[in-house]
Design a protein that fits this description.
The protein has 19 helices and 15 strands. By secondary structure, it is of the alpha/beta class. Helix 7 crosses helix 10 and helix 17 packs antiparallel against helix 19. Bound molecules: flavin mononucleotide. The site of flavin mononucleotide (FMN) has 19 residues, from strand 10.
Length: 491
């Protein structure tokens, strides 16, 4: 049991020691994308090739972000942090990787580290990505609490409960400038302050893991790759606003995320990291999972709350906002998965550290899922303020098959398409809005010269029409009328 901060420090030191012991670690990407691309036979072949080698540890990890090169494998020397990443690995490559992974076996399959991320969060000059949210995704076994503890898991909660007043936690969030990553970009600290100011002892924390935008898979990767980070952040939020119960609303279409969340909750409860009297502070907090049935509208926070209550998922007018009157009519903070995943790092490293990353109006990083006609489909985390050009041509490798770029769709079905003339714009919440699109949750769908923009509009409108809950006339009737106009044009 981890009942005090010193228990956690001891367990973390032991876990780090166990983690460093093998001279080589081979990380195998077992997120949904890796599994779909055939990582399981690669894992089996690596295990066979390394049988009897106590100096080699093989770890199953979450998504590394390299969806374009799955199955992917990273070989790391724990003592020095040196590593080589391989993409498109087959079971036949296993023996070579085990024999000479770090010396550059399979040179053709190596993925440049500059594409990927630095060893530490302190960015290396050649690193294009900066990983805060995805710090442990693709680095640790998400089903192992030991691996999580070896990578600073649950340290931020221990720090907060070890003497940081709730008001100071909220102030840290406000000073960090963190804005909600679920789409709206509302300041997280401000939302927490509203909820904390409400009277009463019954309050709730909800993690919005509904992720309904077409082409978006950021939240799924976080839940599959680092579930404990989200649980820890929810407990911190609970302490800050005076809530003792959290709910994760996760779509049932994410079975691996559901499985790993369930396991992480059980592990945390068994160790006393969730439940009563956390770290001997007298603070109680527990988390329940609620499965969504995959309705886009249930990602909207008021519809989500109704769905958790067992009612039909339809939005209601705001105000009152959930922070005042939410789940069971009690003050409720609803935050997105990615928002939560930032929080332990902000607590550990401070608001000033976070503010140095990104832009003045949108500090920090943003995770994007790159999809469509882009060469390197995958998951990236970049500092806010990077240009679309750097993302699409630099990290994304440009357009597939040498075709020309036409547009990139951001912001989900309510977002917009950005064309070539705006590729040089540094992106954050405000610049994307000024371009007539929006950040949304982070799906980026890239289109080439062969894509018809009317068809694209028709696709998104069709999605909105199908997913309309039918409550309000402009959406129920209007989207159908717009669809008829577009059908007329395309016919
Ligand atoms: C139609 C609609 C769908 C939404 N879907 C999601 C979603 O899937 N995930 C999410 O986090 N936020 C979604 N939102 C935003 C939520 O209502 C809410 O603002 C968000 O969860 C708050 O968290 P944040 O402050 O951390 O961004 C959606 C909003 C609308 C209007």
């Amino acid at each position: 049991m981890i009942s005090t901060a010193s228990d956690l420090a001891r367990r973390a030191a032991e876990a780090r020691d166990r983690h460093r012991r093998p001279s080589l670690r081979i990380l195998v990407s077992l997120g949904t994308c890796g599994i779909a691309a055939g990582t399981a036979p690669v894992l089996a072949a690596l295990r066979e090739a390394a049988a009897g080698r106590s100096d080699i540890a093989i770890d199953e990890v979450g998504c590394m972000g390299l969806c374009h090169s799955e199955p992917s494998v990273e070989v790391i020397e724990p003592a020095t942090g040196r590593s080589v990443i391989y993409g498109n690995v087959t079971p036949k490559d296993a023996a070579e990787i085990v024999a000479g992974g770090l010396t550059g076996a399979l040179p053709a399959k190596q993925i440049p580290r500059s594409w990927y991320y630095p060893e530490t969060e302190a960015a290396r000059p050649d690193a294009r990505q900066a990983r805060i949210v995805l710090r442990n995704c693709g680095r640790i076994d998400p089903e192992s609490l030991d691996a999580c503890l070896a990578h600073d898991g649950w340290q931020a909660l221990a720090q907060v409960l070890g003497g940081m007043p709730a008001a100071q936690v909220i102030k840290t969030m406000e000073e960090s400038g963190l804005r909600g990553r679920g789409g709206g970009g509302f300041p997280t600290g401000k939302k927490w302050a509203f909820a904390a100011a409400q009277p009463g002892s019954e309050k709730y924390i909800i993690c919005n893991a509904d992720e309904g935008d077409p082409g978006a898979f950021m939240d799924r990767a976080v839940l599959e790759g680092d579930p404990h980070a989200v649980l820890e952040a929810m407990a911190i939020a609970g302490y800050a606003i005076g809530a003792h119960q959290g709910v994760i609303y996760v779509r049932a279409e994410y079975p691996l995320a559901c499985k790993r969340l369930t396991l992480a909750i059980e592990q945390a409860r068994a160790e006393g990291l969730l439940g009563r009297n956390l770290f001997g502070s007298g603070f109680d907090f527990d988390i329940a999972l609620k499965y969504g049935a995959g309705a886009f509208v249930c990602g909207e926070e008021t519809a989500l709350i109704r769905s958790v209550e067992g009612r039909r998922g339809m939005p209601v007018y705001k105000p009152p906002f959930p922070a005042v009157k939410g789940l069971w009519e009690k003050p409720t903070v609803v935050n997105n998965v990615e928002t939560f995943a930032n929080i332990p790092a902000i607590i550990r490293k401070g608001a000033a550290w976070f503010r140095q990353i990104g832009t003045a109006g949108s500090p920090g990083t943003k995770v994007f899922s790159l999809t469509g006609k882009i060469s390197k489909v995958g998951l990236i985390e970049i500092p806010m303020g990077m240009t679309l050009e750097e993302i699409i041509t630099g990290l994304g490798g440009g357009i597939r098959n040498g075709r020309k770029f036409k547009a990139v769709q951001t912001g989900g079905p309510s977002g917009g398409c950005i064309t070539a003339k705006s590729l040089g714009t540094p992106i954050d919440y405000d610049t994307l809005k000024a371009l007539g699109s929006m950040m949304g949750s982070g799906g980026m769908i890239v289109m080439d010269e062969d894509d018809c923009m009317v068809d694209v509009a028709k696709f998104f409108l069709g999605f909105t029409m199908d997913e309309s809950c039918g409550k309000c006339t402009p959406c129920r009737v209007g989207s159908r009328q717009l669809q008829l106009i577009l059908e007329g044009i395309t016919r």
